[in-house]
Amino acid sequence: MLAYVARRLLLIVPTILGIMLVSFVIIQFAPGGPVERVIAEVTGQGTNATDRFSGGSGNDLSPTQRSVSSDPVTSKYRGAQGLDPAFIKQLEKQFGFDRPAHERFLKMVWDYSRFDFGRSYFRDIDVVDLILEKMPVSISLGLWMTLISYLISVPLGVAKAVRDGSRFDVWTSAVIVVGYAIPGFLFAILLVVLFAGGTFFDWFPLRGLTSDNWSQLSLWGKIVDYFWHLTLPLTSLVIAAFATTTLLTKNSFLDEIRKQYVQTARMKGLSENQVLYGHVFRNAMLLLIAGFPGAFIGAFFTGALLIETIFSLDGLGLLGFESVVNRDYAVVFASLFIFSLLSLVVSLISDLSYMWVDPRIDFETRET
């Protein structure tokens, strides 16, 4: 066991390096970049980055910065003609693009190995602090969605397997198919129209995790207020998640129920509950345990972008999307590194749980 865990931990290093290298190479060929973004804003298409680098708005550039130049430095970037080459070099140095690509990658690997993720290009805040700032929303959505979907799906899947072919199985399958077919964001819009002041009722809020007076509420009032804000987003996320897990649970149980050891257990006089939950349940849950890391990571980090946007929740999904759009590579690569590392660790924990549930499985004997 210890040897297997050690091998898996050692494999994390080349895996992370591979992920970061491939992503870094792709970024080098992607159009645009932080320098181009600032240039676009400097030339009149925006003001945020200009305020940071030039000390004013895009219309307040000095004559030196607006001087026409055919310098090779400006010719590298679209829209840079007419800007002072020294200003472009300042931008390149600020973002680290004054170094060759391989030096930038090696520096990034060295910094990340010490968990030094630098600062956001355009938010003027440490990347770690920025991610931690968005964590409460993603933790709330991912954790509760995963928990609720499993609490609904596992009992429902077991019930459908036991009653396979009955009316209960048929009508619950119809509900599941409809729920799976409707995209979560579309269901979210429907909930907003119905229950958040859209057209009919105004029962639920549409912004943030808590109310403005949250600090003044009692402990029970804070709990109620927190879940009051989460009701509609969680409902939107759970719809599709519980459908997939329910069908997977049902099929796993049906496959196990038909096996010979179940018939043997029944012939020995064991009750149906003893057979179902003492023998079938543990074996049928293996697929769910194996799929848990992917489900958890997906729900935690990538599954809520549209939901966060619709309900004005500022979480990691929205942060990642905005960072890619704004070419904030410091946040993009740091998020990729952290989430990849977490995914690999959770995958290892899942395999260990696999072995705990079914002692017959021994990953240590497999060739790696």
From TrEMBL:
Any one GO cellular component localisation term in the record: plasma membrane
Biased amino acid composition, Polar residues: 59-73
Keyword Cell membrane carried by entry: yes
Topology relative to the membrane: Multi-pass membrane protein
First and last residue of the signal peptide: none
Transmembrane segments: 9-30, 141-162, 174-206, 226-249, 286-311, 331-357
Family of this protein: Belongs to the binding-protein-dependent transport system permease family.
The protein's name in its UniProt record: Microcin C ABC transporter permease YejB
Origin species: Methylopila capsulata
